[in-house]
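Re: your question about Stage 0 sporulation protein A homolog

S., sorry for the slow reply, the queue was backed up all week. Below is exactly what I fed in.
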Amino acid sequence: MFAALCDDDKYITEEIKKLLLEYAKDNRITIDIDEFESGEELLNSEKNYDIIVLDYQLGSTNGLTVAKELRKRNVLSSIIFLTSYPNFMIDAFEVNTFRFLLKPIDKSKFFKAIDDYIKIVDANYPITIIQNKELKKINSNEICYIEADGKYSNIHLSDKIMHCSKTLAGVTKLLPAYCFVKTHRAFVVNLHYIKSYSSDTVYLSNGESAFLSKNYQKSFQTSYMNFLKKNYVRL
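Result:
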């Protein structure tokens, strides 16, 4: 993931950078970060960013003006505004703002914003696979689990199985780490599809099941509990 931080307060920029790096470490993802001290610097950048964390007050200009210019250039980055002035939020909707965060930055709210972004992007992100020498695209949220098949793998969707020329490890690298977890040397499951599990089996909502080996029991349970804390509420 590529992120741009734009704030004329160096202390705030460093604080956000530390939070992003902490999030990346905790969630096993890579985040490349560029820092800008003015809106002009950001607008002069030729890079494409997934997320732009943008301060509303930027010296001689403001973040809303910068965001409007970015949208004029058809920049599709998700914009997270930082502000001490919540009244401007209504105006900011016209630039398709992803989130607003009030200063001082609340760590849990910042992490929640990144969580929400990653879920949206990863769930709809298409991956390309080769089946019988033909290229096909599927979204990661369609996959229930992946099963190793020698040097190849079988991708199990809710209603069909697709044979893939990549290995289990090769397919797994293309998928969001927060919800695809290894349960056995030959199985990786999508945590969204788990119905229940026992000491040696993970039962999925499509009626199938995957092996759960002793070597992966602890890491699987930890990943699943963390996933539930972030994605579900108790009624």
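The chain has a mean pLDDT of 87. Helices lie at 10-27, 39-44, 63-72, 89-92, 107-124, 168-172, 214-231.

Happy to talk it through on Thursday.
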